[in-house]
Design goal:
Layout: E1 2-13, E2 19-29, E3 33-37, H1 44-52, E4 59-67, E5 70-71, H2 77-83, E6 88-91, H3 95-98, H4 105-116, H5 122-135, H6 141-146, H7 154-166, E7 172-176, H8 184-201, E8 204-208, H9 212-218, E9 221-226, E10 229-235, H10 245-265
Helix pairs in contact: 4-5, 4-7, 7-8
The structure holds adenosine-5'-triphosphate.
Adenosine-5'-triphosphate is lined by residues 20, 38, 40-46, 56, 58-59.
């Protein structure tokens, strides 16, 4: 079943009307992973922030986006806020900036969950957070909840953010470059975890990334963005025979990087 239908989504500067994202359209079904690729500045983040109702001040969205048939772009602010967390989970690019440095990880993780599930007791929420952290490969979840954010490594902070999003049982998880600030081992671990999360919870995933290999590992379908527009879309196998010159360049750059790496190892 189609969960999300995006048609002609645009983002423009409010003051001048200059378009930054134009005419983005896609469908996302239950359990599906859509990869969004394109180089820096191609509009990947803004297209997703528009859906979440989190565009920076001075930008406005246009077009249509429906979740389970209900229009969301034009919904009142309160209705959009209610969709964040429970319907749309969001994992931002920089985990370190997403936490309040003066508050321990536990209270930050539980705050939104308390609000989303007023009927659950504190003990239930805490138990759920600990079990989630354990599934996300934290060796000592109880200790992690008592840590301050600066006590977590980059990979741990990113995984804690995934836990924060999952505690709200989102229907669609939007992950914006969740691995770009991580070392290779942590990158692989986060990608594995996102794949597992999808299989275990059944939530749909919008996975925004520069990393074609990561997208190939996770996504069912992809959209390729260049200069604010979708230039190619289809099954993830399109990386094997890209038809748009821009996609061909992205794929060739990725192959050349891999070749250099393998040659350096010889
Ligand atoms: N608040 C803003 N005001 C004006 N222009 C903006 C604003 N935010 C982003 N832009 C511009 O919109 C375009 C798309 O930005 P966006 O962040 O969506 O790109 P991206 O593909 O996600 O890049 P990256 O991979 O580097 O995160 C870029 O040209 C960017 O400079």
């Amino acid at each position: 079943m189609t969960l999300l239908e995006v048609r002609g989504l645009g983002v423009a500067l409010e003051r001048t009307g200059r378009p930054l994202v134009e005419d983005v359209s896609y469908d996302l079904s239950e359990h599906e992973c859509l990869g969004v690729v394109g180089e820096s500045g191609s509009g990947k983040s803004l297209a997703s922030l528009a859906l979440l109702g989190l565009l920076p001040a001075g930008l406005r969205a246009s077009g249509r986006a429906r979740f389970e048939g209900r229009e969301i772009l034009e919904a009142p602010a309160a209705a959009r806020a209610a969709l964040r967390g429970r319907v749309f989970g969001y994992i931002p690019q920089q985990a370190s900036g997403a936490f309040d440095p003066l508050t321990r990880v536990g209270p930050q993780l539980l705050e939104a969950a308390r609000f989303a599930f007023p009927d659950k007791t504190e003990a239930e929420l805490r138990e759920e957070a600990e079990s989630l952290l354990s599934r996300l490969k934290f060796k000592n979840p109880r200790e992690t909840l008592a840590h301050y954010p600066f006590e977590l490594s980059g990979g741990m902070a990113q995984r804690a953010l995934i836990a924060a999003a999952l505690l709200l049982h989102p229907r669609v998880l939007v992950a914006d470059e969740p691995t770009s600030a991580l070392d290779a081992v942590s990158q692989k671990s986060v990608i594995d975890i996102l794949g597992r999360v999808r299989a275990e919870t059944g939530c749909a995933l919008v996975f925004i990334s520069h990393d074609l290999a990561a997208v190939q590992a996770l996504a069912d379908r992809v959209i390729v963005m260049e200069k604010g527009r979708v230039v190619e879309s289809g099954g993830v196998e399109l990386f094997g025979h890209p038809s748009h010159p821009y996609t061909r360049r992205l794929v060739e750059t990725r192959r050349a990087l891999s070749r250099h790496f393998l040659e350096a190892l010889r």
